Amino acid sequence: MKARIIVTLKTGVLDPQGKAIEAALRSLGIEGIDSVRQGKVFDLEVSAGDGPAAEATLRTACEKLLANTVVENYAIEIL
Amino acid sequence: MKARIIVTLKTGVLDPQGKAIEAALRSLGIEGIDSVRQGKVFDLEVSAGDGPAAEATLRTACEKLLANTVVENYAIEIL
After folding, report:
1. Do residues B21 and A65 lie in contact, with contact meaning Cβ atoms separated by under 8 Å?
2. Distance of alpha carbon A42 from alpha carbon A19, whole angstroms
3. d(CA B38, CA B26)
4. Tens-place pLDDT, residues B30-77
5. Is A43 close to B21, i.e. CB distance below 8 A?
6. In what order do the strands lie in the sheet with A33-46?
7. Could you tell me if A24 lies within 8 Å of chain B, comparing CB atoms?
8. Which SUPFAM superfamilies match (chains A, B) (predicted)?
């Protein structure tokens, strides 16, 4: 089955990459975008059993590798 | 209004970062994840008018800055 994990910075954590994108958009003359925050997305192909088993595997992957839970949130979607 | 842009590699484009993650997951003993592809997510705060106007602005931002449309697809969600 397919799954998507989205990792985003927690509210309040500074995002210099997002700020750089905001500045680049303005310098390209693209108006009307007030703020940008960048995150990561992982598209996964999972063979670990049914829904709950797959979700448990994905949660472990997030906690151990994909997200730094001190400063990042993650969301798991089974597609 | 809030919007989310998801940028992913096109099918067939090699993703060494995804391969590295697959190997790292295996080395951590996490089984059952067969393939990983990494992409980017941008969470934006848009003030550019209503729905269609905002979407046009976001499409321009994707084409000019956020996605390399030679090797990447992008999807815009207005939240």
Report:
1. yes
2. 23
3. 17
4. 999 999 999 999 999 999 778 888 999 999 999 999 999 999 999 999
5. no
6. A72-78, A2-9, A33-46, B33-46, B2-9, B72-78
7. yes
8. PurS-like
Residue B5: closest CA among A72, A8, A66: A8
Q: What are phi and psi of A18, to 5 degrees?
A: -60, -40
User: Could you give the ipTM of this predicted complex?
Assistant: 0.92
Size of interface A-B (CB pairs under 8 A): 114
Q: For residue B45, what are its two tokens?
A: 């705060």
Q: How many domains does chain B have?
A: 1
Please report, for the domain that includes residue A26, its CATH number: 3.30.1280.10
Distance CA(B76)–CA(B58), nearest Å, equals 7
Closest chain B residue to A33, measured at CA: B46
Query: Would you call A17 an interface residue with chain B, using a CB distance cutoff of 8 Å?
Result: no
Which residue range forms the structural domain that includes residue B33?
Answer: 2-78
